[in-house]
Specification:
- The chain is α/β, with parallel strands linked by helices.
- The chain has two domains: 21-177, Copper amine oxidase-like, N-terminal domain (Copper Amine Oxidase, Chain A, domain 1), CATH 3.30.457.10; 190-389, Glycoside hydrolase/deacetylase (TIM Barrel, Alpha-Beta Barrel), CATH 3.20.20.
- The chain contains 14 helices and 21 strands.
- Strand 10 and strand 11 (113-117) form a beta hairpin.
- Helix 6 runs parallel beside helix 13 (353-368), helix 10 (261-279) runs parallel beside helix 11 (298-306) and helix 12 packs parallel to helix 13.
Length: 390
């Protein structure tokens, strides 16, 4: 039986099968139209359950001209229009009308929002509800129809497309939030190591990639803008092989990059622009030269956070750049001493000859110690010296 690589198993664990059902959910979704106005939903959208369409009541109420009030004491929502009232009992998951109608299991919570049967609510408050296959559209109206059913979709088509795109973005964001939560849980239960390389790409990068592949490992490369420009094909190969990329700035000069918070953010932005030119993507992962302490002041840290960047340092320093002729054995020894008792290790390495020679033994050691070697994910909370001070 062919051996399954650990990171394929990890991907399956991190991306449950239901996460890939987005297109199916969207294609089966009903669009809600009240008096020929498309109802736009936020975060939670209509769902079909046992042949009935349910919608989050908060967004529907305005379109139906229904007053909505939540009573905290009884944990109930009151919907009122004229002499008619519906009570949604959250505790009982039941719907009651002031005309004596009761629907048990008629409501439920979806992402913290109360979902109600659309057709029943609309009809109770005096709307005629029809179903248009094209769309599909559930149309409610209490006015004289100006548009035939078969023409309504064509009139609302652009708005429906925009709504669909918005919902796809919302679903993607939820999926990313779920993945981030699962990664946090993974950190708690597994021994995770992030191998990181600074100052590349270089002539050594391809050899590093070959070694990583040989040991079924992935890494994160914090790169300088001029080297991104000079090693375009290598940058593409880094990404194609499933590694992460981050920014290391432009100058790598303390006197230049740390002049102000603007110069720090400016160098990262410039590096990001170079990355986008080469591979068509941007990243929010950064590592500032020489680490975030002592050169990054508090307002510098706030500035990169405001700019949307996640600043990573390390908690294991291989010291491969601390001396000119450091040996591979010394690099390995430095890592072994510091990695002990760490469930999450972020190892600082540089693209140097001695580091490349040390890398196979380093990967063997980490695997023997039970570590899973994965790239940094842009959704994760960073590990840096400022966080470690808290």
């Amino acid at each position: 039986m062919k051996k399954i690589k650990w990171y394929i198993v990890l991907i399956i664990a991190l991306f449950p099968i239901e996460c890939f059902g987005i297109d199916k959910d969207i294609d089966s979704m009903v669009y809600i139209v009240v008096n020929d106005q498309l109802v736009s939903f936020e975060e939670t959208y209509p769902v079909i359950k046992e042949g009935m369409t349910y919608v989050p009541i908060r967004f529907l109420a305005d379109h139906l001209k229904v007053k909505i009030k939540w009573d905290k004491k009884s944990n109930s929502i009151f919907l009122t229009k004229g002499s008619k009232q519906i009570i949604l009992d959250i505790t009982l998951n039941a719907l009651f009308t002031n005309q004596g109608q009761i629907i048990t299991d008629g409501i439920f919570l979806e992402d913290g929002r109360t979902m109600v049967p659309y057709k029943f609510i609309a009809k109770y408050f005096g709307y005629e509800v029809s179903y248009i296959d094209k769309g599909p559209i559930a149309r409610a109206t209490n006015q004289s129809l100006c548009v035939e059913d078969e023409d309504l979709f064509d009139i609302l088509q652009n708005k429906i497309i925009q709504e669909k795109e918005k919902i796809l973005i919302q679903i993607q964001r939820k999926k990313e939030e779920q993945i981030a939560r699962e990664r946090i849980e993974m950190r708690k239960n597994l021994k995770v190591v992030y191998i990181t390389f600074d100052d590349g790409p270089t002539p050594y990068t391809k050899e590093i990639l070959d070694i990583l592949n040989q040991y079924d490992s992935k890494a994160t490369f914090f790169m300088l803008s001029d080297r991104i420009r000079n090693y375009k094909s290598v940058v593409r190969e880094i990404i194609a092989q499933g590694n992460s990329v981050g920014l290391h700035g432009v100058s790598h000069n303390v006197n230049k990059i740390y002049k102000s918070e603007h110069t720090v953010v400016g160098e990262m932005n410039q590096c990001n622009e170079e990355l986008q030119k080469v591979v068509g993507i941007r990243t929010n992962l950064i590592r500032v030269p020489y680490g975030s302490i002592p050169h990054m002041k508090k307002n510098y840290v706030e500035a990169v956070n405001t700019a949307g960047y996640k600043m990573w340092d390390w908690n294991v320093d291989s010291e491969d750049s601390s001396q000119k002729n450091i040996s591979p054995n010394q690099i390995l020894s430095n890592v072994k001493k510091q990695v002990k008792n760490k469930n999450v290790a972020v190892i600082l390495l540089h693209e140097r000859k001695a580091t490349v020679k040390a890398l196979p033994e380093l990967l063997k050691y980490l695997k023997a110690e039970g570590y899973i070697t994965i790239p940094i994910d842009y959704r994760e909370e960073p590990i840096n010296f400022w966080n470690q001070k808290k």
